Predict the 3D structure of the following.
Amino acid sequence: ADMFDGILMAEQRFHGEGYQEGYAEGSHIGIAEGRRYGLLHGAKIGSEIGCYLGFALTWRSLLQKCTDEKSSKKIRALESLIGMIQKFPYEDPTYDKLQEDLEKIRGKFKQVCSMLNIQSDFRIGAERSSLTF
Amino acid sequence: PMGSHRHPPGSSWTCRAVLGDGHQRTVRRVAWSPCGSYLASASFDGTTCIWKRQEDGFECVATLEGHENEVKSVAWAPSGSLLATCSRDKSVWVWEVDEEEEYECVSVLNAHTQDVKHVVWHPSQELLASASYDDTVRLYREEEDDWVCCATLEGHNSTVWAVAFDKEGERLASVSDDRTLRVWHRYHPGNQEGVACSGTDPTWKCVCTLSGYHSRTIYDVSWCHLTGALATACGDDAIRVFEESPTSEEAQPTFSLTAHSSLSNLTLHCSASVLRTSVEAEPSRRKRPRVSFSRHMSLMALAVFPVSFLE
């Protein structure tokens, strides 16, 4: 019975071996691809937040000398944005509130731009939008 | 006056002003300030204009910019010093106006994940509600110099088009592309019904879902603060009025949704159905303005009673 086992179970065995080989190769390629994607995505986020931080720090020092009520409101908003950016956990891509905090930073940046009367849209070229309800 | 039979409808209204230069695209919503001196207009051109009433017309005193694309709705808070706008760019903006009529953005809220269709303020508190293409209703309040999303109402299976608070503000009605009207009840921390609350924020629970009444998307809902009646605007060309009854009434058929009525279970029945009335679901391209949907629809429904009842 044993000598037939080899023939009867051949397909199953090859299937299993093939699967193991493929899985290992796939994991290897996947890790490399994931790493590249993480690098790209992380760089994009870093670049975006870095832009906001530089912007906020610059404006804070520009408004440093101003003591009027309007300027102190702007400074308060700028400090809030700076605080949010500095609190952001850059080292942890598994942070559960990552997306949420990012959106809060983007929202605060937009609010600051509105207060400073600056266009927050740094994109070049007009975006065409369709009629919706 | 509206509803009078002596004059043809619309003849006692005169067009006092045409504000044609404020926007470059569809004007999607208008809202009067609580004091009545200002009119806010939200447009697909991405801006919201604030118009001040003058003796001889209206003057644009401010243009609120910042949204990336179409502004879908604008609403004034009952205090009159706050304004909210929402847009296809998925955000809700809260604006503050001071004594010098200067508008300032106090918060940009990115809580929704899709197009925000509607914003409405609580009748007496500085609490804001928004409805979105992401199937949720969100609530926002001020917390330490900034605004935060304090509740997310999940339950609808499709776009939520509109929301309305009841007179006390302890309940909220929402209508959706999923053809249902939902009523949500606010439970405060320490409530006797045993509804769990996280921290100091109240929890909103869906206590009533009206399904099977509307055969198409429901685009708008209005909660009468005088009579408590709920009116809906639907893509199936009908307006429906719902009334809450603690007990089943003989004069009107009752479509019971739940067996009994208590704080946590409501019985709402359809008291009247006005058929063959077109409800606009798209911005109007007409030159002649239509008669607006009366906010006292419930009283009108009682006036035309009895009418044919739907299944």
